Amino acid sequence: MPEYESVIGLETHIQLNTRSKIFCGCKADSWEDDPNVNICPICAGLPGVLPTLNKSVVEKAVLLALAVQADNILPISYLARKNYFYPDLPKGYQISQYAEPLARGGRLIIPSADGEDRVVNIEKLHIEEDAGKTVHQNGKRLIDFNRCGVPLVEMVTAPDIRSADDAAAYLIQLRRLLRWLGISEADMERGQLRCDANVSIRILGEDSLNTKTEIKNINSIENVRAAIKTEVKRQIQTVEAGQTIEAWTLGWDEDTETLRKMRSKETEADYRYFREPDLLPIRIDEEWLLEIKSSLPELPLARQKRFTLDYGLPDYDAAILTEERSLSSYFEATVKLSAGDPKTISNWVMNDVLRLIKEKKISAGGLRLIPKYLAEIIEIVESGMITRGTGKELLVNVEDKGKTPLELVELEGLAQVSDEETLKSMAMTIVDQNPKQVATYKAGKATILGWFVGQLMRATKGRADAKIVQSIFQELLDNDGDLGS
Amino acid sequence: MTALIDLSLHEAAQALRAGETSARELTLACIARMEEVDGHVHAFLAQTPDLALEHADRADKMLAEARKGENESLSNLVGIPVAIKDVLTIRGVPTTCGSKILEGYRPPYTATSVQRLIDSGAVILGKTNTDEFAMGSSTENSAYGVTHNPWDLARVPGGSSGGSAAAVAARMCFAALGTDTGGSVRQPAAFCGITGLKPSYGRVSRYGLIAYGSSLDTVGIHAHSAAEMAVLYTTMAGHDELDSTSMPGAVEEIQLQDGDLRGIRVGVPKEYFIDGIQPAVEAAVREALNVLGDLGCELQEISLPHTNLALPVYYIIAPAEASANLARYDGIRFGPRKNGDDLWDTYLKTRGELFGPEVKRRIMLGTYALSSGYYDAYYAQAQKVRTLIKQDFERAFERVDLIASPVTPTTAFPIGAHEDDPLAMYLEDVFTLPANLAGVPGLAFPVGFDDSGLPIGMQITGPHLGEAILFRVTHAYQKATDWHNKEALL
Amino acid sequence: MDLTAEEVRKIAFLARLHLTDEEIETYARQLSAILEYAAQLQEVDTANIPPTATVLPLTAPLREDTIRPSLPQDEILANASSSEEGMFQVAPVLEQEP
């Protein structure tokens, strides 16, 4: 069997998180609401209405275009009517863009573990309105128009993706970027990020494109991975059996993990695109573009790489720390406020801080445990004022109580007992008081050492360094109770 | 004492201010007139007497306050009964666009243009008849029956704003709103012996104007004279944030001057004086041009070389836009539904059975012109030729201040004359279409009658946003002549 | 330029208009005549002429991203011929369907 190569292109629809819809002032987010409560004559497509373009939609779309380094952000672009009939499309056309989209070109880089970053080229990016939802209930077919007019950005890649895993990786990167820019929550389960995959195969080494199938309605990144894997396998089997691939439209059934052939909405749809006469051309002049550009933050991948360079962090750490923008800012702020080792800080952030924000369901920027406090905690752990264990508790404590670490250390007497003389004398007391356990140790059961350590830890309320305590006991017991001077 | 309905808008406004009559009385007089003659004319599709009296009572309050000196600058529109073409929405009032597919539909919002009239104290008498979805030149395409020309009930009033024009001509109202996409205000004005304005595209908000040809539609006005029309125009014109295609910036003030038109250059386009014009029409128009000359205008022949292409361009672009604008009529959110075997069948049946033949013709024409394989030759090409037509006007307005021409090749034709020949009907629009394609304003006014006593109109067309000069010239003409004062004997 | 009945059927379907056989014949005739007339546009030299999508010398006005009140649910449903539980009801589809 020859070696086959998967040729995959992804078409994503991104719901922008503007307050109002793209062409009217209705609230854009209806996820929690009753049906048909967020609509007006405009988004319901009633006779006589006209659309007006939301400025924020254009800004967020341009921000995304800049973030993917679009080759060309058109100074003048046009909205167009895409004509087709469907009950959830009230006007019988969707206002979208066609021949003159907002932006062309660009790329999204998928970082990979082996260092071989893969570049996925973006063909184009345009804005459009979302349609309503069909609900099947009680055997009836019902339409909720709440979602009509929600702003979408459609981004189409070139067929540059070569595996289902890379497709998933692309979506993960895209999601990260969208959240990073603050333009979409990009939650696939809530339909804020939707993906259709175009899949074809070819013999490895060829560069022609063969007939592709389109997989629609995949509602999670894992399902995208599974669906593409399944389809590639099917295509290979088909070709190996001497049959041809037909340009089917397929749907992924996640329950049965199978692909189902769908009847396309308009067989060989002729959308009869023409420029939208109710909306004038979108103009993005130099001044506005510069303004938007100036609001472009350092992007996740760039920051990730910079963390490895500037702070000597391993890729693993940098990836986790830059998973989310406020977390990465948090980390960096802590590093800047600390004299400590960035790797140490990274560990604390990746473990304790991340756990905390997940529990509290807030972003790093919302913590009362501000970077300054984290830096303090790490310092006093490193200096031995408190144990690591105490430090971990203190972290949570600071967040709950909102006091500074030093205040709490003071208030609750958390300082580590680190004076060796004190520890030695406490240890001696415990040894004197527990001859039976001493005997057990002398009999060769070295594990009883842990019991001695535990005793002292309890006596100090955990405020001793367990390792030091252990070595003190070891020395004591080995030297037969005689500590010397 | 002149009957209330025979007063001019200004006379009525004066009488109202002086307390000689009330808005309620005026409204009741119009309603009585409607009862008297609309059985014959059939200008109205929906009469709204309750709403009208509500408006009238509110107007009377405003007038009372003004007399007490509390509100000095009262619009002349306060208490004046007007009618609205049934393609403009009024909240809660049935709006059909002359179609069965909107039977029973009550919009939840009011068109901006209408709202501005209401806010200025106008009284709304009802919705007037129209060719279905404004597609037609005779009002014969209405699914609710044809409107009859008050000058000769066996003839059409013109279209698509035939109801509007007939209502004004028959003195059922003082003025009316129509819409003009290809001539639908100017042509009925000519056929009904009244004055009609198609404003510049973008001058009056289209929000609430149920769309036919989005890049061509305008809200227009019917009244007996330019002076009366100006009252409605100044109330409605101007930017609307709900309409992205409405022009920003201030509206040029309308100055109605008497008599002296010296220095105004009038272009007479040779392409509009062709064989096939009814001789009486040409004679009346030429006579009117002489009057303008006497008033001081400088007449000169000009050429608008692409005039003959206006018709094919229009009948590609308007149907193309309409095919998309009418896709929303599917019986799901509003309007009646014709149930089919399944969802898709319901679409087919609802639209197939509830749209009339002219509408279906234009939808199919438009669908074809936009479809894959034909887009370039038809739609794209039409858009480019449209540019040529627009440029014809721009070039002309470098040399002249306005363009004068006939409105229609003939006077009002008999009902049924073009029944089987849609193309012949389309040819009625030859003189009016170009202004819509170029987006420029046009004002039609009466200039005479033919031997059968049927009115003849002339139109003057100005540059984009050039309404002021059109009002000025028409007013001067109407001060010097009497055609606009003639009344249909009904 | 003669449109066949088949072509008219196709266009009618694209526009979701059910036509009787008689109507198809009539429209084929009428549309052909109109398109024939419109075909004269193809003779015009428009080589360097830009299309006019709008007559206005403007670009899109942009609206501030503020929320405005929507219509109450009952008003939006008021004109529907069939609705249930706050949603518009449509007929089911006979074939397997996205």
How does this model look, in words?
The complex is a heterotrimer of chains A (485), B (490) and C (98). Chain A has 485 residues and is α+β, with helices and mostly antiparallel strands. Chain A folds into 3 domains: 4-292, no CATH class; 300-411, no CATH class; 420-478, Arc Repressor Mutant, subunit A, CATH 1.10.10.410. Chain A has 15 helices and 18 strands. In chain A, strands 1, 3, 7, 8, 9, 12, 13, 14, 15 and 16 form a 10-stranded mixed β-sheet that branches. A 3-stranded antiparallel β-sheet of chain A has the order 6-5-17, with no helix packed on it. The relative contact order of chain A is 0.09. Chain B is 39% helix and 12% strand. Chain B has 15 helices and 11 strands. Chain C has 98 residues and is mainly α. In chain C, helix 1 (5-14) crosses helix 2. Chain C starts with a helix and ends in an 8-residue tail after the last strand. Chains A and C meet through strand 2, helix 1, strand 11, strand 17 and strand 18 of A and strand 1, helix 3 and strand 3 of C. Strand 11 (140-144) of chain A pairs antiparallel with strand 3 of chain C, so a sheet runs across the interface.
